[in-house]
């Protein structure tokens, strides 16, 4: 019996040494150490031994079992380590390889110019106010000193939904709403960007839907010089520090006095060229001091409060800044146009 156990140990150790994978090793474990294995068989025959030999043989059988189990365990650890090392070697990443380029989109040129203008005014203490595109006749016209009978109210010029409801023709109703909410107590400093709608035949410079950015400042002692200083900062930040501005008298029902602002032409530096039609100046926006009627209608005491307002078309600003020659490019989603405004390349 002793001889048999020593043989079994030798056989098993040799098998373990030769095993080339974990499965083979496991088969050896099952065949030698399992319940139906040869060691168990040997132990079953112990009944035939003398009382003296039985514990000796039992101890030897246990020792053989432990030696085989330990050898399997050690070989298994070595094999597992080798497997991890093999896997690591095969999965090595070459971090020096150039990356695959990721295709990115970019902001629409109108979004870009609107955000640039918003950031500029936020930097001067303004907040952004946005409101409905479907407006009442009251906020779109009446509250802005555009009384009944004004040509803007004509079906030819506006998209009416009912007699009293229309698509807003400018973002000014949002300023009127903001003033009304403040119940006559200033100050106000807001920028209102958004879509507006007018009945127009679309061509290179007209669109039935376009964007506007309007600004409104209301407070005590707000003067025309504040407006001029603000517009000067705006023009220089958007078109370049070397731009000059000039204000020309104009008319808007909601401002008095009203002006139009030009910037000196960047192409010819004021000398006169085809872009500025020989004048040296390019029209950018309209503005003025808020009409006392507009202040009073919104609940402000026009003796105590004054304000200025301005309005511009981001399409036109972006056309001038980026050299876009047709307003319809903004709305037709041609990627060849849109890609030109990518900041990645
Ligand atoms: C309130 C009071 C006054 C907003 C103003 C303009 C002048 C103006 C146009 C320029 C080209 C719009 O994009 S455009 O079509 N706007 O010239 N807008 S003053 O004045 C306001 C607005 C609201 C309560």
Overview of this structure, please?
The chain is of the alpha+beta class and 345 residues long. It is 40% helix and 19% strand. Strands 1-4-5-9-8-7-6 form a seven-stranded mixed β-sheet, with helices on both faces. Strands 2-3 form a two-stranded antiparallel ribbon. β6 (245-252) and β7 form a beta hairpin. α1 (2-18) runs antiparallel to α2 and α1 (2-18) packs parallel to α4. The two termini are 83 Å apart. Ligand 2U9 binds next to α7, β5, β8 and β9.
Features:
11 helices; alpha+beta; seven-stranded mixed beta sheet; two-stranded antiparallel sheet; binds ligand 2U9
Strand order of the largest sheet: 1-4-5-9-8-7-6
User: What small molecules are bound in this structure?
Assistant: ligand 2U9
Number of strands: 9
| Biggest sheet descriptor | 7 strands, mixed
Oligomeric description of these chains: single chain
The N- and C-terminal alpha carbons lie at a distance of 83 Å
Please compute the radius of gyration using only Cα atoms: 43 Å
| Residues in β-strands, percent | 15-25%
Q: What fraction, in percent, of the residue positions are helical?
A: 25-40%
Query: What order do the SSEs take from the amino end to the carboxyl end, as H and E?
Result: HHHHHEEHEHEEHEEEHEHH
The geometry reads as: rod-shaped
Low-confidence stretches: none
Give the structural class.
Answer: alpha+beta
Determine the number of helices (DSSP H or I, runs of at least 4 residues): 11
Tell me, rounded to a whole number, the average pLDDT.
Answer: 91
Describe how the helices and strands are arranged.
Blueprint: H1 2-18, H2 22-33, H3 38-44, H4 53-90, H5 109-122, E1 127-128, E2 134-136, H6 137-140, E3 165-167, H7 172-181, E4 188-197, E5 209-219, H8 224-239, E6 245-252, E7 255-264, E8 281-290, H9 292-297, E9 306-312, H10 314-322, H11 335-338
Parallel strand pairs: 1-4
Antiparallel strand pairs: 2-3, 4-5, 5-9, 6-7, 7-8, 8-9
Helix pairs in contact: 1-2, 1-4, 2-4, 5-10
The protein binds ligand 2U9.
Residues 144, 170, 172, 175-176, 212, 214, 216, 252, 254-255, 285-288, 290, 294, 309-313 line the site of ligand 2U9.
